[in-house]
Amino acid sequence: MNNEIPSHNDTGNSRQQPVSMKENMKNRSTWRRLFFMVVMVLLYSVSRVVVGMVVLLQFFWVLFTAATNESLETLGQSLATYTYQLILYLTFNTEERPFPFDLDWPDGPPTR
């Protein structure tokens, strides 16, 4: 994405000048993205706690039964994919907002 606008100086030469910081500060889409990023950071924090619970539950399940719990495996995969989607959005690698905004809850490994 190019944030430069053409400008002409007194000598008649054309050169690129960056968009002013003042203009950037007024950009509503950037502020809207900040709002969604704050929400995504909160969702990321919650997902980390839930992943920790899944890890502990799965460990104790295996400890007592010597087999993994398929429901916990599925939930763990979904949470891993969801966390991946959150991080992609937070690091500006995608404009698609994860569940509950643009995407549905993931049901498998990441597609990207």
Give a brief outline of the structure.
By secondary structure, the protein is mostly helical.
Describe the 3D structure.
- This protein is mainly alpha-helical and 112 residues long.
- It is 57% helix and 9% strand.
- The protein contains 3 helices and 2 strands, in the order ββααα.
- A two-stranded antiparallel sheet has the order 1-2.
Helix fraction by DSSP (H/I, runs of at least 4): 55-70%
Count the E strands: 2
The chain-level mean pLDDT equals: 87
Radius of gyration: 22 Å
Overall SS class: mainly alpha
Span between termini: 21 Å
Assess the beta-strand content as a share of residues. Answer: 5-15%
Strand arrangement across the biggest beta sheet: 1-2
H and E order: EEHHH
- Residue windows where pLDDT falls under 50 for at least 5 positions: 1-9
Q: Judging from the principal axes of the Cα atoms, what is the shape?
A: elongated
Counted by DSSP, the helix tally is: 3
Largest sheet: 2 strands, antiparallel
Could you give the topology of this structure?
Elements: E1 4-8, E2 14-18, H1 21-25, H2 28-65, H3 70-90
Antiparallel strand pairs: 1-2
Helix pairs in contact: 2-3
Properties at a glance:
disordered N terminus; 3 helices; 57% helix
